[in-house]
């Protein structure tokens, strides 16, 4: 008779808290086979919102004892920590965001996301994070560079947002899964006389070059400048497009996106107008 328990991954861990964060340390026991496995830790606040996330995932030798050390930030907000084992034998056969958290670090909003590739193929993926203010208005957006994930693997990916004083809620998704070409979101912020514009462009099937037209109109309503820019995006990839312009003597700014066939991609707001003086 086969002892099933000997084939199972198990773990033992302890946690301690200091001013810098919560440390989760322990061991993962591989069982009687060599395979990829590890542990995920999710720190949550009083409302059950994930504050931070970390993971350990590695190739475990047969009958081995594997130490791990995880660090969870922003301890003042953390009420509890959930942990669970991840094992290549139990991963769902998909590319999936297990969870993500956000906290302020060095003047930026740091986002940590745990991504699992449960497929038998190498996958390219990354994070797209969108920050919303108290009125649920999108005020910041950012995408990471793509990373290659091996089959049946788990990784922590990092992203950040700049508008720490305005962002009250963060929504993070992954790219790299089949999708349609779209502008996922756009954020406009004014600091003194400088206006910053960000948009996340997600590509569907097939690598292609996109063209972005930034059209600036002066105070008399006359088209002042058109700045066409080329943005290259891989299949199922994403890129954050950013531009800054002076608000002096400007009445409005329009931004238009075109795919490789010069078909316009609609902005999520339904209008090309991204800034205007009322």
Any overview of this molecule?
With 278 residues, the protein is an all-beta fold. The chain folds into three domains: 1-90, Sandwich (Immunoglobulin-like); 92-177, Immunoglobulin-like (Sandwich), CATH 2.60.40; 179-278, Immunoglobulins (Immunoglobulin-like, Sandwich), CATH 2.60.40.10. The chain is built from no helices and 21 strands. The protein has strands spanning 10-17, 22-29, 35-44, 50-60, 65-72, 80-87, 95-105, 108-117, 123-132, 138-143, 147-149, 153-161, 169-175, 182-191, 194-202, 208-218, 223-233, 238-246, 250-258, 264-265, 273-276. Strands 16, 17, 19, 20 and 21 form a five-stranded antiparallel beta sheet that branches. Strands 9, 10, 11 and 13 form a four-stranded antiparallel beta sheet that branches. Strands 1-2-5 form a three-stranded antiparallel beta sheet, with no helix packed on it. Strand 9 (123-132) and strand 10 form a beta hairpin. The chain is flat, with a radius of gyration of 22 Å. The protein starts with 9 loop residues before the first strand and ends with a strand.
């Amino acid at each position: 008779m086969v002892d099933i328990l000997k084939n199972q991954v198990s773990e033992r861990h302890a946690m301690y808290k200091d001013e810098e964060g919560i440390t989760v340390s322990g061991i993962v026991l591989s069982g009687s086979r060599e395979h990829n496995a590890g542990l995920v830790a999710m720190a949550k606040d009083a409302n059950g919102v994930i504050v931070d996330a970390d993971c350990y995932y590695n190739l475990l030798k047969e009958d081995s004892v594997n130490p791990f050390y995880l660090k969870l930030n922003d301890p003042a907000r953390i009420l509890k920590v959930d942990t669970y084992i991840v094992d290549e034998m139990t991963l769902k056969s998909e590319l999936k965001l297990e969870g993500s958290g956000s906290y302020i670090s060095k003047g930026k909003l740091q986002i940590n996301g745990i991504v699992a590739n449960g497929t038998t193929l190498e996958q390219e993926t990354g994070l797209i994070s969108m920050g919303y203010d108290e009125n649920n208005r999108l005020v910041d957006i950012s995408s990471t560079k793509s990373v290659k994930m091996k089959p049946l693997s788990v990784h922590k990916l990092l992203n950040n947002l700049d508008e720490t004083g305005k962002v009250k809620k963060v929504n993070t998704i992954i790219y790299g899964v089949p999708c349609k070409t779209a502008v996922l979101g756009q954020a406009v912020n004014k600091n003194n006389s400088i206006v910053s514009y960000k948009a996340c462009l997600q590509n569907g099937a097939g690598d292609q070059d996109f063209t972005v037209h930034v059209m600036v109109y002066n105070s008399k309503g006359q088209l002042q400048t058109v700045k066409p820019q080329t943005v290259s995006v891989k299949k199922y990839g994403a890129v954050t497009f950013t531009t800054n312009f002076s608000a002096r003597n400007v009445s409005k700014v329009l931004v238009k996106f075109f795919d490789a066939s010069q078909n316009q991609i609609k902005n999520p707001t339904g209008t090309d107008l991204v800034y205007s003086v009322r």
